[in-house]
Amino acid sequence: TYRSNKPDRPITCSCKSMYRLADKIGLDVLKDLALDHLKSRLSAQSILAEIFSSFTSRYLAFKYDEVKKIEL
After folding, report:
1. Percent of the chain residues topping a pLDDT of 90
2. Nearest Cα residue to 47 out of 70, 19, 24
3. Phi first, then psi: what are they for 25, rounded to 5°?
4. Contact residues for 18 (Cβ-Cβ < 8 A; gap 6+)
5. 29 and 23 Cβ atoms separated by less than 8 Å
6. 8 A C-beta contact, residue 44 and residue 66
7. I need a labelling partner for 11 at 20 to 30 A (CA). Which of 3, 17, 66, 72 fits?
8. Does the pLDDT at position 53 exceed 80?
9. Alpha-carbon dihedral of residues 16, 17, 18, 22, nearest 10 degrees?
10. What is the 3-state secondary structure (H, E, C) of the chain?
11. How far apart are alpha carbons 25 and 56 in whole angstroms?
């Protein structure tokens, strides 16, 4: 795992958790970075699970990007 391979480094955070934090504290630059990372990880295999996730239901910006990706 990441932690056992890199014990001297901080524990990583998911991009969804980072987006939630950025939204909560109003840090739009971090929110945009997290959203860009989330979008870059969408795939044909993950899109349906993501579009119906609780995260997507709370954050409409991500939902719009998911729908755009489906339309392509």
Report:
1. 24
2. 70
3. -95, 0
4. 30, 33, 34
5. no
6. no
7. 66
8. yes
9. 100
10. CHHHHCCCCCCCCCHHHHHHHHHHHCCHHHHHHHHHHHHHCCCCCCHHHHHCCHHHHHCHHHHHHHHHHHHC
11. 19
Q: Which two tokens stand for residue 29?
A: 């630059």
Contacts for 22-31: CB closer than 8 Å, 24+ residues apart: 23/59
25 vs 49 pLDDT, higher one: 25
AA identity, residue 35? L
**Residue 47: predicted pLDDT:** 78
Q: How open is the CA angle 9-11-15, to the nearest 5 degrees? A: 125
Neighbours of 38 (CB within 10 A): 22
